[in-house]
Structures are given as structure tokens and as C-alpha cells.
């Protein structure tokens, strides 16, 4: 494999993990990132056992685990704060080898960046055009032109690679809800386990980060593009400030500038993740509702699977075909599953909300764990 070249378009989690995996296999890697630096804004990220297994494949699981926090338990509560279901993280670790670990996105990004030579990374470079010549791919970007054996499109929901090489692909679709993400200042007095509270057309969740901080996230059913009349910090406090403890205390420990908001989109399925010597992964291939916490996890799976496929065949086309057959059915299935759960969690009509909460409360914890096994039990 020595001497092969790859251009990774997109310097997020999936793109950097792909670069690390291929660099360690002897590929000459260039990562193009349109932002001015390789960094992630302040938010948390849940890494489930399948993601930790993917990180282990590139030698970073132990390091990332040390950067994160593991809670003993969590689960779902109703609008009044009553538990509907509980999650035993110890049992997840027993069944799947790793507990669910929460990290700051910036810490994960830093670990990936530091695993690469600095000359692999080109920030402030935006892809403008490209062509596949059959034996190589040429990419024109804001800093010049590059030629490689393979191009990986890891440039997110609004992927330039997908738009250029998949002009027939459908546009991302709004799932009907907007999301806020935020991280608190240290809070010694909040001792409760993490949870997601389901309301009527709204939900609020939180989980621990290292240093007594909490990662909080919230969603509400709103029209796409709706903006707060004053600030997103004020908007989220108005909407959730009277929810059960510890939500008021968490919101009081959030600074105004730390509240991030984005509308939630997923991606209609594409017929293939591969066009010639160009391949999609992560959100560029299968953006999904974040309700299952699998977006970044699936991008990490993509990255190490692509590297493994390329490692087993000298024929790039054959390797990419194997990647597509492996990843497309799995990820598109998880997109559909996330869409169903996201819609259920956003129900707002009181009678169906009552039925949803009752059904969740009556579902045994073992049944919930079994239902997640196909997702969490992934092996490379």
C-alpha cells in the first residue's frame, strides 16, 4: 500500500479518523478543511461501544477514554421527572466491551489531529471542482490542484463532494425539530445521573463531562430557520427553565455564548456511497437525527471499515465496492431507526404522549438492551 495517495475532503471527526487509519497503513494523506483551523466548537459527544471499538482499531480508544467521562446509569424521564426507562452502563460494558463514554468534541478532535503529521493537514482549503480520470482523481481547491488515487468525501451534511459527484442526490430534509447544545460551568452540587426528559414536542437531556461539567442538549418542534427574538440562551431558558431539577441549575450554569443552535436534518438514501474513485462517509453519506447518538459513531465505523477494505485489496474499485456493500445497508438502517425514534420523542398530542410514556415505562430494560445490540455490537 506504500505510495498510494488519498485526499480527504472535510476535517471533522470522520475525515480525521479516515486520515489516521489510512496514514497508519502507509497511504500519503492530505486533509482539506474549509474552516480556518482543525477544531470543533464546544459541545459534547456520546461514544457508544461501537465507536470505542472503531477508535481501538486506530489505536486511540484508551487515550480518548481517558479524556471522557463514564456515568453508571442514565435513561429517559417524563415531563414531570419520573423515570420511564433506565440504562445500566455497567451492563452495556459487560455485553459490548466498552461503556458509553462522553467526551468534549474538541478533545476528540485534538486526539485525532495529534495522531497525524502536521503536513497532512490543510486548513482554509475549500474544494471547488474535481474529475475522475479513471486511474486517478484531480481535485481543484482554493489553494491549488491535487491528484490522488482516492478521494474521500467527509465534508458533512452540505457536502461539496456529494453535490459534485452525486448531482442526482436528494437534498437534506428537515426532520421537524431544532436543537440546542451547551456545556455548563463546573457544578459540584449536581449529583444525579444523566437523563433525557421527554415532553410534548420537546426534550431536554444532559450527561456528565470531566471536571464536573455537563453536556446539555435540547430539541423542540419548530419551523426550519426559526430564530430567537433575543438570544438562543434566553430562548432555551424560557422554554426549559421551569422543567424538573436539575435542569434549572444546569441552565443557570450555562454562559450565553456557549449555547449553539442548529436545525436537525437527515439525508435521504443515496443508491451508492461510491462513484469511481470517490467515496462518501459520515454525514456526507448518511446524516441522521441525533436522537440515538450514532452520528459520529457511524462516521468512525465508516473510517476504519474503509481503511480495512482498502487494506485487503490492491484494486481500489473492488475495495470501495466492498465498503459500499458493508456500510450502506447498516448506516441507512440506522438513519431510518433514528428518524422513527426522533419522531416518537417529539410527539406533542397529550393522548399519544401518555401512551408513549406508558409503553416506555412498561418495556423491560433487558428488551431495550437487546434492541440496541445490533447497533452497539458492531465489529470491524
SSE layout:
Elements: E1 5-9, H1 13-23, E2 28-33, E3 44-47, H2 49-57, H3 61-67, E4 73-78, E5 83-88, H4 89-96, E6 101-104, H5 105-114, E7 121-123, E8 127-132, E9 137-141, E10 144-148, E11 150-153, H6 160-165, E12 173-183, E13 195-198, E14 202-208, E15 214-220, H7 232-240, H8 247-252, E16 260-266, E17 274-275, E18 278-280, H9 283-286, H10 295-312, H11 316-345, H12 350-362, H13 365-376
Parallel strand pairs: 1-2, 1-11, 2-7, 4-13, 11-18
Antiparallel strand pairs: 3-6, 4-5, 8-9, 9-10, 12-15, 12-16, 13-14, 14-15, 17-18
Characterise the protein shown here.
The chain is an alpha/beta fold and 380 residues long. It has a single domain, classed as 3-Layer(bba) Sandwich (FAD/NAD(P)-binding domain). It contains 13 helices and 18 strands. The protein has helices spanning 13-23, 49-57, 61-67, 89-96, 105-114, 160-165, 232-240, 247-252, 283-286, 295-312, 316-345, 350-362, 365-376, and strands at residues 5-9, 28-33, 44-47, 73-78, 83-88, 101-104, 121-123, 127-132, 137-141, 144-148, 150-153, 173-183, 195-198, 202-208, 214-220, 260-266, 274-275, 278-280. It has a seven-stranded mixed beta sheet with strand order 5-4-13-14-15-12-16. Strand 17 (274-275) and strand 18 (278-280) form a beta hairpin. Helix 1 packs parallel to helix 10 and helix 2 runs parallel beside helix 10. The radius of gyration is 21 Å and the shape is globular. The model has no long low-confidence stretch (mean pLDDT 95).
How many discrete structural domains? 1
Q: Give the low-confidence spans.
A: none
Query: What is the assigned CATH homologous superfamily?
Result: FAD/NAD(P)-binding domain
Tally of helical segments: 13
CATH class equals Alpha Beta
Helix content: 25-40%
Secondary-structure class: alpha/beta
